[in-house]
Amino acid sequence: MHERKATIKRDTLETQIEVSVNLDGSGNGKFATGVPFLEHMLDQVARHGMLDIAAHATGDTHIDDHHTVEDIGIALGQAFFQAVGDKKGIRRYGHAYVPLDEALARVVIDFSGRPGLIYQVDMPRARIGAFDVDLFNEFFQGFVNHAKVTLHIDSLRGKNAHHVAETIFKAFGRAVRMAAERDERAAGVLPSTKGAL
């Protein structure tokens, strides 16, 4: 059984990033990105997805967090695409509902080979601490484009922006875990009638 791990290095004029992922990990996250709130969210993905994720980034955060957040999403997507390999024997689809007090999110993912993002989230406010909530959309768009997955994210309710964000990332982690998991009954089988993903 091949190890489902990958490390991606991405260097641009704006950011230098290294992201590692282990799809069969134990929920460990190690982060040094200069964007603390994103690190808190990625930690939720690792923990609830039972993934090992490491992200190290230096970027132009003195301007704003945009490039760093987007490029981490891109690198994480590339790492997922590489780690999941030929997709034989995985469940392919995953979904999760996660509540946190008054907030509730639903995330559905398909390792389809086709990038697509539906992001239906009305954040109660524009910032969580210093973090611009618009950047969540940029992060997930970067991820989707490079992981080549279809991803539907719906915030169903919530008044506290921190709670809304946390439900989204926890549900994302759980949905990814379900979709990327090996299916004992379909070992070695590609989960598509087309014969390709």
List the helices and strands and how they pair.
Elements: E1 5-11, E2 15-22, E3 29-32, H1 36-49, E4 52-59, H2 66-84, E5 93-100, E6 103-110, E7 116-120, E8 127-128, E9 131-132, H3 134-147, E10 150-157, H4 161-180
Parallel strand pairs: 3-4, 7-10
Antiparallel strand pairs: 1-2, 2-4, 5-6, 6-10, 8-9
Q: How do the SSEs run, as a string of H and E?
A: EEEHEHEEEEEHEH
- Total DSSP helices: 4
Binned, the helix content reads: 25-40%
| β-sheet strand percentage | 25-35%
Radius of gyration: 16 Å
Look at the structure and give the mean pLDDT.
Answer: 96
Q: What structural class do helix, strand and pairing data support? A: alpha+beta
What does this structure look like?
Helix 2 (66-84) runs parallel beside helix 3. The protein is globular, with a radius of gyration of 16 Å. The chain has 4 helices and 10 strands; from the N terminus they run E-E-E-H-E-H-E-E-E-E-E-H-E-H. The chain has helices at residues 36-49, 66-84, 134-147, 161-180, and strands at 5-11, 15-22, 29-32, 52-59, 93-100, 103-110, 116-120, 127-128, 131-132, 150-157. It is an alpha+beta fold and 197 residues long. The model has no long low-confidence stretch (mean pLDDT 96). It starts with a strand and ends in a 17-residue tail after the last helix. The strands form 3 sheets. It has a 4-stranded mixed sheet with strand order 1-2-4-3, covered by helices on one side. Strands 5-6-10-7 form a 4-stranded mixed sheet, with helices on one face. A two-stranded antiparallel ribbon has the order 8-9.
